Amino acid sequence: MAESLPPSGHRYNTRRNTRKRSLEADDAQKDQPAEKTAGKDGEEEPSTSKPGEIDCAICLQSCVHPARLPCGHIFCFLCLKGVFRSCAKCAMCRRPIPRNYLETPDLLEIPTPATAPSGDEEEFHWFYEGRHGGWWQYEERMSRELEDEHKSGTDKFETVICGHLYTIDFANHVQFRNDCPFHARRILRQRPSLNSKCKTLTGWWEYDPRANDDLETAYQKGESKVELLIANHVYLVDLHGMMQYRKTDPGRRRAVKRDRVGTACKGVAGIRPTVLQAMGDLSQNRPESPENEVFRSIEEIFRGITLSDDFQIYNHVDSDVSEEEEDDDLEKHLIMDEDELVSSRGPQFDELLGGEESVPPSIVVNDFLEARITEIEALSRVIENPNQFASRKEFPRHLRRRAMSHNVKRIPKRIRGLHESLREKSNTREGPNKVPRRKWRRRPRELLKEYNRRQRKFIWLETHIWHAKRFHMVEKWGYKLPYRPCDKNYRACYRASAEHCLLQDFSYLNCIELRGDFHCIIEGLKCHTSDRTGNTFDSRLVIDGRRSGRTMFYHGNRFPRGAIGEVDFLWNSSTEKERVVWIWAHPAYAAEIIYDLVTTFGLAKEEDMETDITPPEGVEMEKLEKRNVPFCRTPKYSNGGLRMTILKDTLNRFRLTGPLSQAVIAKVLQAVDFKKRSVDDWSTKFHCDDPARKLVYSNQVKFWRKVRSFTSPAQLPPNCVMPLTIYDPRFTAPKIRTKAVHSEGNEL
To answer: What is the pLDDT of residues 208-226, one digit of tens each?
Structure first.
């Protein structure tokens, strides 16, 4: 805290001057002849052990009350106390200091030179006021420094005590920390005598009757430790070591003793005997009011304090207890004599700041309790009638919103009724809605139309909404495709493909359907493929439609230089003369393949036909705009015997990768049981009207049930095709997200 410059005649002296004087004194001692001591061989050697030779690495001066840490380093006890309160580590090696070190320090016995005063000078000792009465004596070096500054006529000077910078004000006889000048203590200069010893707060506090009964019961049973709740803190009382300490801070301990009732003590549970006398007067003049129960309960607390031949447990307060520990007990006093208050507390309240307010020396217990009873009744009424803020606390903190105070729709439905009833009781109503902001006014009124408008240039996949929230999207090949995750979590994709299952959407691949005579289709496709690249459209492995194939597609009769790209194909498993083959090509070169097929087969585009695309009742047209397959969206080409249909953006295709992909498919795909269905639709008519198709479907279901027990896709033939009619997975999805695992015997 910055201070103004001192007036003329004032002199501030810092610790550096003290260090300078100490160095000059050491140099003066070095100039004197060293004392002689006997060596090993009887020769005299100069002595190196001098009083005050050990230097403190914290204050950079000779140690006063030197204390050795377990690590071996030596510091002043007060310097060590300041370091312990700040970080509890050695200032040299940074090793931790034991928590109970200040209670049992390892003090070194180094003799200090006695400074006898001159014949004309008197010796004085310096003391500072304790927090709760009494005086603490400064250590020897600080006392000498204060005496020197006082004799030199200094009004104020700064010094370091326990690692903090203090200001000593001789004019006002106080000391205070520079960072907290309002907490000042008085200082005292006194001649040394038998009565000049510093006072200490000694004595014993008696436990309250309830805690005393618990301790006595545990002591009679032979228990070693007892837990007590004292002043809202859990304390542990060690009956073997006869000490107590807070469970959360075992470093601060107090001694306890077991003695007969009637032993002199400072009070009961932090209450002075004057309060007990006031309680006796109160019991005689107790008013007849509903608050009598409170007075009676207070009287019962102190009942039986003066029992005969019983044992009581006392809490010791001695000079070894730190001043911070004294605060916890002595602040519990309810009443004091005026003389005792002035002598222990010193200046009242804001007296040091020039104010007129002061803390009253005593309280009237009757009035004090009546005021507290009124407050307790008010709190009870508030608890019985919770407000709307209390109702919002009934659900987790992360779900609370600030808008709940004025918008009831932000509150969950299960407690919305309680909130509305509380608002009615408080006669508060929601005010008129504010004018919506410009962004809200410009929002699309019909979101489906807005989505369809945004897909005119770049088509969205059906999984676009899911990917748009989690991936960076790119515009490629006429599609809006996910490029990379927003959280840069490539590791998650690798982990899914290596340990679980990774799903990829390949619906952007363009599908081309060729329908016509089998030999005509094969002859035309031979111009664009070659047996040297592997299986082609006429391979026996794929011709029956049980497996899909992949081959390289070339320009007509230009193998091997006219390569276009790889295509996937699948034949329809039909025994009829007219066959169907589906070809999937990448959108980057799908248009080029379509152009070559039109040229090879001599196809011509068919004219649009008038079709009725009126949606059924209750179905919005916007929902079907991107889902139905009108003639304009599936261009058709024909030459009389063969027909080609472009099924672009009408089919979905997904790829599952990973060791648990088979388990995921087995959990998601559930075969339709037509015997239990009550709705007649196209699937029921297709499979049930024709006995042959019904038999084929039953065989497919049996085969699928066998496939369910497989634990890996490697147990199936590569590129195999399994046709199956399933339920919509959205109706059979579990309510809680689970992880699919292999489990035999689970019906799909």
So the answer is: 777 888 888 888 888 888 8
| DSSP-derived 3-state class of residue 181 | strand
- The strand pair at 164-169 and 156-161 is best described as antiparallel
Strands (E), 422-577: 459-460, 471-476, 479-485, 502-505, 510-517, 549-554, 563-571
End position of a domain, from candidates 335, 354, 377 = 335
Residue 173 lies in a domain: no
Residue with tokens 């039109």: 598
Domain interval for residue 590: 489-608+627-658
β-pair type (459-460, 479-485): parallel
Looking at the chain, the whole-number percentage of residues with pLDDT higher than 70 is 65
Q: Quick check: is 176 in a domain?
A: no
Closest among 136, 182, 141, 172 to 159, alpha carbons compared:
141
Q: Is the pLDDT of residue 422 over 80?
A: no
Q: Is 552 within the bounds of a domain?
A: yes
Regarding whether 685 and 632 lie in a shared domain, the answer is no
Please answer whether residues 61 and 25 qualify as being in contact, where contact means their C-beta atoms are separated by less than 8 angstroms: no
Residue 332's pLDDT is 38
pLDDT band at 586, cuts 50/70/90? Answer: very high
Helix (H/G/I), strand (E/B), else coil: 139: coil
Q: How many domains does the chain have?
A: 4
Class of residue 579 by CB neighbours under 10 A (exposed 0-12, middle 13-18, buried 19+): buried
Please report whether residue 602 resides in a domain.
yes
What tokens appear for 137 in the block?
Answer: 């004596």
CA distance linking residue 566 with residue 550, whole number of Å: 7
Distance (Å, whole) CA 566 – CA 572: 20
What are 517-543's pLDDT values in tens digits?
888 888 888 888 888 888 888 888 888
Contact 315, 204 (CB under 8 A): yes
Instruction: Give, in degrees to the nearest 5, the angle at Cα 376 between 374 and 379.
Output: 110
Pick from 206, 202, 205, 362: nearest CA to 274: 362
Same domain, 642 and 555: yes
Pick the last residue of a domain from 641, 658, 675. Answer: 658
Q: What pLDDT score was predicted for residue 467?
A: 85
| CA 303-306-307 angle, 5° bins | 95
Asked if residue 652 and residue 671 are part of one domain, the reply reads no
**270 and 406, same domain (yes or no):** no
Rounded to whole angstroms, the Cα distance separating 568 from 160 reads 86
